[in-house]
Amino acid sequence: MKEISIIIPIYNVEKFVAECLNSVISQTYDHSKIECIIVDDCSPDKSMDIVNDIIGQYKGSMSIRLCRHEKNKGLSASRNTGLDISSGEYIFFLDSDDYLYDNAIETLMKVHTEYPNAEIIIGNAFDELHNYNLFKLDRMECFVNMNYLFLGTTWVITAWNSLIKKELIDRTGIRFMPGIYFEDNLWNYNLLPNASNVSIISEVTYFYRKNEGGIMLCARKEKVEKCCNDYISILQNFMKNLDYPALVGRSVMAFNMLINTIDYVEKNRNNMDRTTHFERELKSVRKQFLHILLRKKRLFLSLMVLFSFYPLVNLRFMKLYRRHYNVFVALFWKPALVVDKVISFISR
Question: What is the pTM for the complete model shown?
Answer without folding.
Answer: 0.93
